[in-house]
Amino acid sequence: MIVANWKCNGSRAMLDEWVRSYLNEKDIQLDNSCLILIAPPSVFFNELSDKISKNNINIFLCSQDIAGMTRKHTGAISGELLIEMNVDKFCIVGHSERRLFYKEDNQIIKDKVVECFQNKINPILCVGETEGENSLANTKEMIEKQLRIFENESISEGTTIAYEPVWAIGTGKTPNPKDVNEIHKFIKDVVQSLSLNSLNPKVLYGGSVSEKNAKQFFSEEFVDGALIGGASLDGASFAKIVNIKNGMK
Ligand code: PGA
User: Which atom of ligand 1 has the smallest separation from the CA of 7?
Assistant: First the structure.
């Protein structure tokens, strides 16, 4: 599974260019069974969805956020609205930018995850440690705390976790793929033991993934894909990463 997170980027002109360069680069000879999602700014859901279907591109739309059961306020997008916009499969929840700049804590994030479940939307929950926590060797402890929102929850089959070390997002710095693999195994074990239905979730790596380093991450046993910010804004770069994943099956 490969997810593009466009954050606050994009324009009408960019959509056309993105689709053109994605199609140009995408290798259709490969096994194309990898699930591909794009999370654009919500103002582009309709237009991007039209372009995807007109060009027969096998990509699903994903939301970057959801209001939460108790926070359906001005500016927020509820699960019901996402379904109206046909964004009914996946939603990113708890990105570190939301945790840091919008003060989203575990309680708020749990509320959002529950709203996803109630609308049959699969959450892609982002977890990860800061640089300080990493240097104090507190990574697993921090991640375990963030995953506690699944305690006593029956979670959907498609629930996905994105391991995104905060210090690797948009910095060009990446952790050692072997360390990432160990954290992914840890995440799978924790979610399995916390959730009521013992789900073993897919775990994506996110943080400065590019066409240059993607293969190293995808070669690791417990890395099920990637959540990609910067490198997803260019259709050709994103297609190259998708080709790498499809070529490794
Ligand atoms: P990046 O962003 O790929 O630009 O590091 C990843 C993310 O924030 O999800």
Answer: 8
63 in contact with ligand 1, CB cutoff 6 A: no
- Three-state secondary structure call for residue 152: coil
**What's the pTM value of the predicted model, to 2 decimals?**
0.97
What is the distance between the alpha carbons of residues 182 and 180, in angstroms, rounded to a whole number? 5
3-state helix, strand, coil in the chain (%, to 5): 45, 15, 40
Identify whether 95 is a catalytic site residue.
yes
- pLDDT tens for 6-58 read 999 999 999 999 999 999 999 999 988 999 999 999 999 999 999 999 999 99
Question: Residue 127 in contact with residue 164, Cβ under 8 Å?
Answer: yes
Domain 2-246 maps to which CATH number in 3.40.50.1360, 2.60.120.1440, 3.20.20.70, 3.60.15.10? 3.20.20.70
Tell me how far apart the alpha carbons of residues 92 and 232 are, in angstroms, rounded to a whole number. Answer: 15
> What is the rounded end-to-end Cα distance, in angstroms, of the chain?
12
Give the long-range contacts of residues 143-149, CB within 8 A, separation 24 or more: 143/183, 143/186, 143/187, 143/190, 144/190, 145/106, 146/94, 146/106, 146/109, 147/187, 147/190, 147/191, 147/194, 148/106, 148/194, 149/106, 149/109, 149/110, 149/113, 149/125
One DSSP character per residue, 209-229 reads --TTTHHHHHTSTT---EEES
Query: Of 25, 133, 153, 164, which is the active-site residue?
Result: 164
**Per-residue pLDDT at 249 exceeds 70:** no
